[in-house]
Amino acid sequence: MNGSCNQCPRQCGTHRTSDSLGFCGIPMDIYVARCAPHLWEEPPISGTRGSGTVFFSGCNLRCVFCQNAVISRDCKGTPVTREELCSMILALTEQGVHNINLVTPTHYTEQLIPVLEKVKPKINIPIVWNSSGYEAVSALRRLEGLVDIYLPDFKYMSSDLSASYSKAPDYAQVATEAVLEMYRQVGMPTFDEKGLMKKGLIVRHLILPGCRKDSMEVVRHLADILPSDGFKLSLMRQYTPEFALHTPFKNLHRQLTDFEYSSVMDEALRLGLDGYMQGKESATTKFTPDF
Ligand code: SF4
Fold this sequence. Notes:
The chain has 291 residues and is an alpha/beta fold. The protein has a single domain (30-287), classed as Aldolase class I (TIM Barrel), CATH 3.20.20.70.
């Protein structure tokens, strides 16, 4: 891409040089913060040998409570060429991981397409697109056939919350269109004989303290727009306040309560949604990768 960058819904129109960065904070080069097997994703993604994660630096959403702020906001990472990234993905594959998991890839969509076109024929494990859900349908369409598993967040329904925490008042509308496009591409979830996902859509939702009612709206919305057996819901309770103490949002300065988690989980169960629930022990920074 030689012109200005409009590849995500921010539509910054910058040229993404070190002197002129867009909202995602990254020039046109690909920056990688970590590349390693990871065992703490959902069971059909991590399996027993781990998910082959590639954590990209920068982010086009930059939530105020982000647990990976050192890479998403501070943009810690190393620039790699496309050829180097191909080699990193092939090396991960040789380690026996169950899939290649591209974490926070949205602002690199254009740069990653030629990488995926090159490595996809050489590997026989799924490619996972692990995103914030804040991405353009026009960009996602270009990934058709290159991505096997979509693993987006659906963070908020409330425009007030998405504006306050992510500077994205249109988040719910954008994420709705994104998950519908993802479902159109990959269809019903399929698994191998060991229960590992081969193809499909897992939608993650992190419940935030003080935002229980919006979380219930998210769950109801997902049940409205997608067939209940057409996706898996990953209901996350791993929120830890350490990363949001600098913000003026007092509700984000505490842990989630059992009541907040169970009321959202009960709503998901009432709606007949299937998926993955996290235990209380997940709410600790020990599951945050060391970048
Ligand atoms: S990818 Fe980055 S520079 Fe491009 S439109 Fe999105 S936030 Fe702006």
